[in-house]
TrEMBL record:
The lineage of its organism: Eukaryota, Metazoa, Chordata, Craniata, Vertebrata. Residues 454-473 are annotated as: Disordered. This is Neurofibromin 2. A 1,2-diacyl-sn-glycero-3-phospho-(1D-myo-inositol) binds at residues 83-86, 301. Keywords: Cell membrane, Coiled coil, Membrane.
Amino acid sequence: MQLQDCSKDTVFEQDQFSLLLSCFCHQQFQQKMQFDSIKTCSKRTVKWKGKDLFDLVCRTLGLRETWFFGLQYTIKDTVAWLKMDKKVLDHDVPTEEPVTFHFLAKFYPENAEEELVQEITQHLFFLQVKKQILDEKIYCPPEASVLLASYAVQAKYGDYDPNVHKRGFLAQEELLPKRVINLYQMTPEMWEERITAWYAEHRGRARDEAEMEYLKIAQDLEMYGVNYFAIRNKKGTELLLGVDALGLHIYDPDNRLTPKISFPWNEIRNISYSDKEFTIKPLDKKIDVFKFNSSKLRVNKLILQLCIGNHDLFMRRRKADSLEVQQMKAQAREEKARKQMERQRLAREKKMREEAERTRDELERRLMQLKEEATMANEALMRSEETADLLAEKAQITEEEAKLLAQKAAEAEQEMQRIKATAIRTEEEKRLMEQKVLEAEMLALKMAEESERRAKEADQLKQDLQEARESERRAKQKLLEITSKSSYTSMNSSTTALPTDLPSFNLINESLSFDFKDTDMKRLSMEIEKEKVEYMEKSKHLQEQLNELKTEIEALKLKERETALDILHNENASRGNSKHNTIKKVSEGSTLLFSQLGLGAHP
């Protein structure tokens, strides 16, 4: 026979029977070992028993707490478990290929934290319970579903880091039952926000611690670890039988949360079946024997297997631990202490690394800041040098302009002096000309007077000449030559005006500005109760958190989408009923209820 485990590539050979075992896939969150193909190469009987195959799987996984697990298969729509003392091929396994066996938890602990020692055991239970909750085989109220999802995220992703776990990082994760998602008018982003809020509070929890917290919450769910079977009482009434770590429970088919009757294992004397009839004999012989019928003989066999296994574990828990278990617990404590020290060391190293990184980041930031300041100062210096050069050039130009202006001013001053001198000379000449004009006017006046006088004289002379001619005529002989000459002088005077033009000079000064910015049976029963009370006290804070979330999302609930289990759970919660106090109450009233349900028979 050849058997191969794909997870470790281990090959075993025996006879001519070949058996292939597929991978154990943690990433898919499935706890199963699947045999891909069974091929019979000869008709000889294979000697391998169920225990041989089971031990092979356990060795492959490194699992020592084997009493919780088994190999499950399905035959004619009925679940069956591989018997350890029976040959594999003697089982009523399907003949078609491939035959699939699921490596699953067959029995559940009462207290996961105290009973599950190995980390691999805790991890397998975590994967199985998580899958049952998501597949709605275990009813979980919405607020508890969000809390469990946050622990699942912590187990997978480690501590919350807002820089790494950004919005949408849970988009592809299956964390909540579809029933819960459909019950509220909430988007995936709103669910992610509430899961992340609790996820951030789990900082510092390792994967095994987060998975154990998940199991501690899940083990208080009413349907946790219960195997349900359809039965009928002697009247033919359909009921459900529940088998779990605490005992046997009778349910109404429509209410799998609250049992009508419960039988703790310490109150049961004998369990047996004959064909389809199943018989429960209580420890108190005064109480009637209870009988019911199942649908198939195979179902009765399965019920008996589960009853024997759970009863043995129930009694085993109330005895001193075996040497093997003591060794395992000691090793687990040592391993836990080692891991704790390792986590503390890693935490210190992480803290030191974070501080070093913060210091480095601060130094890098400071260095960058200094570089920027140096660059800015260098640029400012360059601008200052350019400005200084520009100012020096402008100062030189201004100086030259000033010299030029001074020269021009000097020239202008000389010109003004020359003009002033010219003006002075012109004034003197003007006065002189005025004087000359005045003199000329006076002369002209005199000449006019003289001319008038002379004209008078001329007239007189003419008159005398006329008289002389008359005398000449009279005296024809007497010649009087009188010769007279008259000269007339006319003078022209002109005036000149000298215009004066004074130049003006304007000097414009320029200025420059520059701007720079800058985380015993009764006794035993009493002990169990005491442990439960202590656990409930520890869970008070957790319950307050759950109630707070429930109140927060209640306004978004769609009442029309509530299932029967939702309604039953709300009724139990309003009455203050929990899994453990309900079982205690129904155990106290079992006799009366059995007669009412038609399950009682005289011994």
